[in-house]
User: What shape does this take?
Amino acid sequence: MPKGYWIIHVDVTDADNYPKYLAQDALAFEKYDAKFHVRGGRCEGPEGSIRSRHVVIEFESFDQAMECYNSPEYQKAVPLRQAYSNSDVVIVEGV
Assistant: This one.
């Protein structure tokens, strides 16, 4: 079965409060056995626009990735992420 992935591009706008989001999202990621492949680090944007931070998270399946996003644990984190950053979240099925 193909894996599911979250691809997140983030510009943190409130670094002092962003850790509140990270503490809340950790509850969902632990529950759904999320595996981080990218969490920050160096990046280049040779084409198009780019945000300052990038995250790639693996789940056992696309359905599990969607369940995590829609879970009560993660939905409590969403307003925090939106308050303390500008971000794009894409959930995709792997090959």
Summary: The chain has a mean pLDDT of 96. The longest strand covers residues 4-12. The two ends are 9 Å apart (CA to CA). The domain at 4-93 is CATH 3.30.70.100 (Alpha-Beta Plaits).
